[in-house]
Design goal:
- The protein is of the alpha+beta class.
- The protein has eight helices and four strands; from the N terminus they run H-H-H-H-H-E-H-H-E-E-E-H.
- Helix 6 packs antiparallel against helix 7.
- It is globular.
Length: 196
């Protein structure tokens, strides 16, 4: 997924053991790894025999999370105390501006690309990982007229320090496609979630 090494995956809840074994055999016969990746939990749980037949490992880096927009914006209750502290610290430390931005604007695109690079350096991502993130961002950019996107920029001294690119779906749902921030500004990610 990041290394460009090939692997196989599948979706579906019927004949999961047979499907997994067939794909593993096919993968090995084509000089690929003897494992599958990015199999959704619902697929694994469709047949408890999967746990007996295969070694199954969770990959937390690939988890999807569902959040309440109300919880993210209000941060009420004890479980959000730490996030509130980061947000309040950010607000006290910085004179900031947050606003909707147009990712089709060339100046905005330049700022977003620079922020991706800063994010990658701070997170100690190698150049390939940063480029893959940028490739995905550019695909979203190329298809932005087909997507219902809301993009929020966070600025300090007119410098973009955070960006959140979100696709608005139906029935009150949204997908956070990208969220990048310069973590030298403590609380930037908590602030981005609060604003988005």
């Amino acid at each position: 997924y990041i290394s460009n090494d090939p692997f196989y995956t599948f979706l579906g809840t019927h004949k999961t053991i047979e499907t997994a074994q067939t794909l593993i055999n096919f993968s090995v016969s084509n000089s690929c790894p003897n494992y599958l990746k990015l199999i959704p939990e619902i697929v694994i749980n469709a047949d408890m025999g999967m746990f007996e037949k295969f070694e199954i490992k969770e990959d937390r880096d690939q988890f999807d999370y569902i959040f309440s927009i109300e919880d993210l914006t209000l941060h009420t209750g004890n479980k959000f105390a730490e996030k509130r502290n980061f947000i309040n610290r950010f607000k006290r430390s910085h004179s900031y501006e947050d606003k909707k931005i147009d990712i089709r604007d060339p100046n905005t695109q330049t700022q977003i690309i620079e922020l991706f690079k800063v994010w990658g350096m701070v997170r100690k991502k190698d150049a390939d990982e940063i480029n893959q993130e940028l490739t995905a961002y550019k695909k979203a950019l190329n298809n932005c007229h087909d997507l219902n996107l809301i993009t929020i920029g966070l600025f300090v001294d007119k410098k973009m320090i955070g960006v959140s690119i979100n696709e608005i779906l139906h029935d009150g749902y949204a997908i956070n496609l990208f969220e990048k921030g310069d973590t030298s500004y403590v609380g930037v990610f908590q602030m981005m979630k609060h604003l988005a």
